[in-house]
Amino acid sequence: MKRWVRNALSILIPTVLLAGLSACNSGRYRAQSQSERDAEMRQKVADDTVKAKEDARIAARQLEEAARQTGHDAKVAAQGVKQGWDRDKRGRLDLNTASRADLRSLGLSDAQATEVINHRPYNNKQQILDRGVLTRREYDEIGDRVTVISPSSQQ
After folding, report:
1. For residue 78, what pLDDT is reported?
2. Number of domains the chain is built from
3. Strand ranges, E, within the chain
4. How far apart, in whole angstroms, are the C-alpha atoms of residue 94 and residue 147?
5. Pairs from 141-147 (Cβ < 8 Å, separation ≥ 24)
6. Are 79 and 132 contained in the same domain?
7. Distance between CA atoms of 35 and 146, rounded to whole angstroms?
8. Which pLDDT score, from 0 to 100, does residue 150 have?
């Protein structure tokens, strides 16, 4: 058999088979009554609605978590603004408002930072020594990087 005939038959036979199957399926569709098609459509739409409802619940949970995280981020940023505002022009930390992390950044241990916070408020830098919060040597290491803004002037 010639090559072009074989090629034509290899295309023609599957096409005829598909057309026949399609005709059988369309005949079955026509055999359905309108009420059967309506019921089938209602069921499909109901199934799709259930899926959409669940997808909306998932999206709402994700949105709620994102909003919670954004709120947290805004709070942390506000704390950073406050800490920056509380530093004087030479970058000194106020012993009355510095966070534990800020105090740790000066070289204090976690326990020392906690003690500084627990003995607040301070009226002057000398009180950190008078109250035994830091030793003279420890104070000498950070003294030029801290300040005290009077608690009454912060209100």
Report:
1. 86
2. 2
3. 93-94, 146-147
4. 5
5. 141/106, 141/107, 142/106, 142/107, 142/108, 144/92, 145/91, 145/92, 145/93, 145/106, 146/92, 146/93, 146/94, 146/95, 146/98, 146/106, 147/88, 147/92, 147/93, 147/94, 147/95
6. no
7. 83
8. 73
Q: What is the pLDDT of residue 80?
A: 78
Q: pLDDT (tens digit, 0 to 9) for every residue of the chain, 155 residues total? A: 556 545 555 565 555 455 555 555 555 556 689 999 999 999 999 999 989 889 988 988 998 999 999 998 998 888 878 767 766 556 788 999 999 999 999 999 999 999 999 999 999 999 999 999 999 999 999 999 999 987 665 54
**120 & 67 share domain:** no
CA torsion through residues 123, 126, 130, 136, sign:
positive
Tell me the pTM: 0.43
**Residue 43: domain span:** 39-86
* Domain membership flag for residue 118: yes
24 falls within a domain: no
Q: Are 94 and 139 in a shared domain?
A: yes
Q: Are residues 147 and 99 in the same domain?
A: yes
Work out whether the CA dihedral 79, 82, 86, 92 comes out positive or negative: positive
Looking at the structure, tell me whether residues 65 and 94 fall in a common domain.
no
